[in-house]
C-alpha cells in the first residue's frame, strides 16, 4: 500500500517549489484538452490541442538528444481527429483516480460506476492507448515516458513515469522503476504490470488521505490540482526524488 508519511505543509511546499514553467505547461494544455474531449471528434479543437500538446512536450524534453521526435503538427492533428482515439481519450479522462482502490488483501478494485469498471479491461486499455499515442505523436519512440506525458497532459489521469517520477517511486520503496523503461505491449510484462497497478495505489492513497491532500493543495498557489489528482501525484513523486526533500509518500 502507498502511505502518506508527510504533512500538509510538506505537500504545499512540494507543489510550490515545483518548477513554475512545468505548472504553466500543464495549465496551458488542460483547457484546450477539455474543449477537445467535450467536442465531437474531427473538430477544430484538434488543431489547437496538437499545437499546445507539441509545445508542452517540447518543453518537457521531446525532440532533444535521446528523446523521441515529435511528428509534425498536421500529423498530430490528424491523429487527434480520429474518432476512436478521441473516444478512448474521453473515456480515460472521465476515469477519476478516486475510482481506483485496493482491498485489504491488496487486490485491485474499480468503482462499478466508472467508465472502465473491469480491471482486466482497464489494463488492456491503458497499455493500448499508450502504444497508440506513441505511434500517433512520435517517431521512433520506445519508452514509456513520452506517451505517458502526453496522456497526462490530455487526461490528467496518472503520473508520467519520467526519470524523476520513477526516482520518487524508488525512494518511496517501490522496486522496478530504475533504468530505462521500455513501452510494454501487455500487462503480463513486468513493466506493463507496474503501469497498470500504479493508479490503484494512488487512488487508494488519495481516498484514505484526501483531507490532508486537500489541505496541502489549498494551501498552495496551485489550488486547481484538487481537480487533477493524477497530476498532483506526478508533482509529489517528481519532487520527492530530491534527496534534500522530506519524504511524503512511501510504500
Structural summary, described in words:
The chain is mostly helical and 251 residues long. It has one domain (3-250). The protein has eleven helices and six strands. Strand 3 (100-102) and strand 4 (108-110) form a beta hairpin. Helix 1 crosses helix 10 (210-218), helix 2 (20-38) packs antiparallel against helix 3 (45-59) and helix 5 (83-93) packs across helix 6.
What order do the helices and strands come in, and which of them pair?
Blueprint (H helix, E strand, L loop, with lengths): L2 E2 L3 H10 L2 H19 L6 H15 L9 E2 L2 H8 L2 H11 L6 E3 L5 E3 L8 H19 E2 L5 H11 L7 H9 L18 H19 L1 H9 L10 H11 L9 E2 L1
Antiparallel strand pairs: 1-6, 2-5, 3-4
What would you say about this model in short?
This protein is mostly helical. Helices cover 56% and strands 6% of the residues. It is built from eleven helices and six strands.
Structural class per helix/strand content? mainly alpha
Strand order of the largest sheet: 1-6
Order of helices and strands: EHHHEHHEEHEHHHHHE
Helical element count? 11
Major β-sheet annotation? 2 strands, antiparallel
* Average predicted confidence as pLDDT: 97
Radius of gyration: 17 Å
Keyword list:
6 strands; 6% strand; 251 residues; 56% helix
Amino acid at each position: 500500500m502507498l502511505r502518506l508519511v508527510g504533512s500538509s505543509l510538506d505537500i504545499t511546499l512540494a507543489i510550490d517549489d515545483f518548477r513554475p514553467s512545468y505548472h504553466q505547461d500543464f495549465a496551458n494544455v488542460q483547457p484546450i484538452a477539455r474543449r477537445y474531449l467535450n467536442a465531437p471528434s474531427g473538430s477544430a479543437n484538434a488543431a489547437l490541442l496538437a499545437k499546445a500538446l507539441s509545445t508542452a512536450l517540447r518543453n518537457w524534453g521531446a525532440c532533444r538528444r535521446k528523446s523521441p521526435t515529435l511528428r509534425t503538427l498536421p500529423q498530430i492533428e490528424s491523429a487527434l481527429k480520429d474518432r476512436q482515439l478521441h473516444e478512448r481519450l474521453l473515456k480515460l479522462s472521465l476515469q477519476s483516480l478516486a475510482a481506483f482502490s485496493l482491498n485489504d488483501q491488496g487486490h485491485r478494485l474499480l468503482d462499478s460506476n466508472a467508465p472502465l469498471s473491469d480491471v482486466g479491461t482497464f489494463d488492456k486499455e491503458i497499455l493500448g492507448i499508450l502504444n497508440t499515442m506513441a505511434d500517433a505523436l512520435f517517431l521512433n519512440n520506445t519508452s514509456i515516458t513520452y506517451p505517458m506525458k502526453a496522456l497526462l497532459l490530455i487526461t490528467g489521469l496518472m503520473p508520467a513515469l519520467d526519470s524523476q517520477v520513477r526516482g520518487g517511486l524508488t525512494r518511496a520503496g517501490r522496486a522496478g522503476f530504475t533504468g530505462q523503461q521500455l513501452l510494454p505491449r501487455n500487462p503480463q510484462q513486468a513493466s506493463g504490470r507496474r503501469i497498470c497497478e500504479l493508479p490503484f495505489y494512488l487512488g487508494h492513497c488519495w481516498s484514505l488521505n484526501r483531507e490532508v491532500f486537500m489541505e496541502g493543495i489549498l494551501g498552495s498557489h496551485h489550488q486547481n490540482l484538487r481537480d487533477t489528482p493524477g497530476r498532483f501525484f506526478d508533482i509529489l513523486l517528481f519532487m520527492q526524488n530530491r534527496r534534500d526533500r522530506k519524504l511524503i509518500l512511501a510504500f
